Amino acid sequence: MEVLRVRDPDDPRLVDYTGLTDVALRSRREPAEGLYMAESAEVIGRALDAGHQARSVLLEERWLDPLSGLLERMGDIPVYAATPDVVREITGFRMHRGALAAMHRPTLPDVDDLLSTPGVRRVVVLEDIVDHTNVGAIVRSVAALGADAVLVTPRCADPLYRRSVRVSMGTVFQVPWTRIDPWPAGIGLLRQRGFTVAALALTPDAVSLDTFQAPERLALVLGTEGEGIARRTLSEVDVHVRIPMAGGVDSLNVAAAAAVAMWALR
Predict the structure, then answer these.
(1) Which residues pair with 124 in a beta bridge?
(2) Domain spanning 2-104: CATH 3.30.1330.30
(3) Which of 49, 101, 241, 244 could potentially form a cystine with 57 if both were Cys, beta carbons 3.0 to 4.6 Å apart?
(4) Could you count the other beta carbons within 10 Å of the beta carbon of residue 164?
(5) Whole-angstrom Cα distance, residue 191 to residue 219?
């Protein structure tokens, strides 16, 4: 383990960590360059537990001793240490969670292989959900409440974006996920693998989750924050389901709705 003291925030060796607050830039750059960012000792530890490999780590100097065990687990990689002010200049934010690691992005599984995996019975499909916080919160909820896999459509936010990973508390590493493309044509593949496809939607014919009899293999589609599930998708799924509501409220935030629905379908 090589500890490199950093004094210049423009050090070219730190290119992985610069401009982290520019969401559009990171969303394009991280997948293209084969990396993602893991923030906090707990999240980095979960990434390592899942077999992911680190390529470097950045932390404030005061965390070198408290995180020595974690750093040793990461192997022979550069460890960049700096003062809090320099770290903030590098990343664009105050880092309160100990460390930030640049990780090698794993290869996503083939969607058909994932659906054919023994024991995969509950699948959550995220259709065009663009808010990284919501994506992370959904993954955390479905990990806790029994989903076996998550599928994300082509326009959905990246589950391995730094904020998604952080909000998921690293559960994005334990729930198998991949992209399903094309969509909604992928509904046909789900059916071929024995899944009933349900859309969580506020439509007149939606069945209340109180009375819905969930089949053995179910794929639940959750829609984007603003418009909900696309009309074409609604026309092609097998059934519409809804959460019974009270108090004159018609809907929940998509992450909250995911948690409620998975609890009901457990």
Answers:
(1) 150, 220
(2) yes
(3) 101
(4) 23
(5) 9
Q: How far apart are CA 61 and CA 150, in angstroms?
A: 37
CA distance 133 to 254: 11
Residues 30, 159 contacting (CB under 8 angstroms): no
Structure-block tokens of residue 193: 């693998």
Q: What is the pLDDT of residues 110-122, one digit of tens each?
A: 999 999 999 999 9
Question: Per CATH, is 111-264 categorized as 3.40.1280.10?
Answer: yes
Over 90: is that where the pLDDT of 198 sits? yes
* 123 secondary structure, DSSP code: E
CA atoms of 194 and 181, how far apart (whole Å): 18
pLDDT tens for 54-113 read 999 999 999 999 999 999 999 999 999 999 999 988 888 777 678 999 999 999 999 999
Question: What type of residue is 243?
Answer: I
Model pLDDT, residue 24: 72
**Running DSSP on this structure, what letter comes out for residue 116?**
T
Tokens at 223, concatenated: 């829609």
- Provide the percentage of residues in the chain whose pLDDT is more than 70: 98
Token digits for 47? 């990434």
Hunting for tokens 């998550």 — which residue is that? 150
Backbone φ, ψ for residue 236 (5° rounding): -105, -20
Domain ranges of the chain: 2-104, 111-264
